[in-house]
Design brief:
The complex is a heterodimer of chains A (90) and B (230). Chain A is mainly alpha-helical and 90 residues long. Chain A has one domain (6-87): Arc Repressor Mutant, subunit A. Helices cover 59% and strands 11% of the residues of chain A. Chain A has a two-stranded antiparallel sheet. In chain A, strand 1 and strand 2 (63-67) form a beta hairpin. Chain A is globular, with a radius of gyration of 14 Å. With 230 residues, chain B is mostly helical. Chain B has a single domain, classed as Rhopdopsin 7-helix transmembrane proteins (Up-down Bundle). Helix content of chain B is 78%, strand content 0%. Chain B has helices at 8-35, 37-43, 46-74, 80-83, 88-112, 121-140, 143-166, 177-196, 205-227. In chain B, helix 5 packs parallel to helix 7 and helix 7 (143-166) packs antiparallel against helix 8. Classes of the chains: A mainly alpha (90), B mainly alpha (230). The interface between A and B is medium-sized, with 16 and 23 residues.
Chain lengths: 90, 230
């Protein structure tokens, strides 16, 4: 199995959120992301800082994670980024 | 010694060509830089960052190249050091040499950063090296020293790029980006000869300019094809 790069892991996390009606709790997201909890926390923090995702709470005060417009834009542009990196051997 | 008299029509036509040539390359470089802004902001990928920086520095270097050409034509003198030996000449040459060296280093680093473990501190080493190259050239005031340094850099880049090509993950038939990078550097060296050596390859200057523009337009086309209109 090919080792996933950082961009691939971010794409997988964002797609998991999107495919879950754009709201998912952190624990099932961690399980579906297929990375260690330590790395997951780092990625989650980075995605929050970069405004790819946001945390929302429902009426029971349960925490959910949801994509922002920038997160959707990343998914849209993912293949372009990968093709660009391969084309220019970066 | 007074420079040889050059007919005014040749200077005018030549300088017009210079302006168009510089404009095409600066425009291509800036479109590459700004056209890749979004994919860099989304991915924060270091390779894309260094690739963009290379073209920003190429744009600045070509701007100063055309500026030096303009000054040379305006004062009817081939050497900027002779026009202003104390401050203006050395300062302009320093900026030109520093930015052009950094453009080459950034392009090299964009394809090598993963193999060199990707430590961003290495880029400071390149800044220091570009600074030293610029200082040596300014202090020695010997264009042969600068040309020698650049030919050494070219050989170093060709060697490094050939190593990268042999271990490339994406090596496939018809994929010639390394050849394009080497051509880009070869034409850059020819451009340096052109600015430092009076009447260098005057007879085929137009061919060199067209070939140089073609290399930039090839990269520009590849960037636009991959990134799309946005």
């Amino acid at each position: 199995m090919v080792k996933r790069g950082k961009i691939d892991i971010i794409k997988d996390i964002l797609i998991t959120i999107r495919d879950n009606n754009n709201h998912i709790k952190p624990t099932p997201l961690l399980r579906k992301s297929n990375i260690s909890s330590e790395r997951f926390s780092t990625y989650l923090q980075e995605l929050l800082t970069k405004h790819f995702i946001k945390e929302i709470s429902d009426y029971k005060n349960e925490k959910f994670i949801s994509l922002t417009d920038k997160g959707f834009r990343f998914i849209e542009k993912y293949q372009t980024i990968i093709d660009f990196i391969q084309e220019f051997e970066l | 010694m007074a420079p040889p008299h050059i007919p005014r029509e040749i200077i005018t036509v030549g300088f017009g060509t210079e302006i168009i040539y510089s404009f095409v390359i600066i425009l291509c470089s800036l479109i590459i830089y700004f056209g890749t802004k979004e994919i860099y902001e989304l991915s924060s990928y270091k390779g894309i960052k260094y690739f963009r920086q290379a073209f920003l520095f190429f744009a600045i270097a070509y701007f100063f190249r055309s500026f030096i050409k303009f000054i040379s034509v305006y004062f009817n003198n081939n050497q900027i050091f002779e026009i202003s030996p104390r401050l203006f000449g050395p300062l302009t040459m320093f900026i030109f040499i520093y930015f052009s060296s950094m453009a080459i280093f950034y392009l090299l680093y964009s394809v090598m950063w993963k193999k060199w473990k990707g430590s961003s501190k290495q880029i400071y080493l390149f800044h220091l090296l570009a600074f030293i190259i610029s200082i040596i050239t300014i202090l020695s005031r010997n264009i042969l020293v600068y040309l020698g340094i650049n030919i050494f850099l070219l050989l170093l880049v060709v060697f490094t790029v050939s190593l990268a090509y042999n271990s490339s993950e994406y090596k496939r038939k018809g994929h010639n980006i390394y050849a394009v990078y080497v051509l880009l550097l070869v034409f850059w060296i020819i451009n340096i000869f052109d600015i430092l050596v009076p009447n260098f390859l005057d007879n085929i200057k137009l061919v060199i300019y067209l070939a140089s523009c073609t290399v930039f337009l090839m990269i520009f086309y590849k960037v636009v094809k991959k990134t799309g209109p946005n």
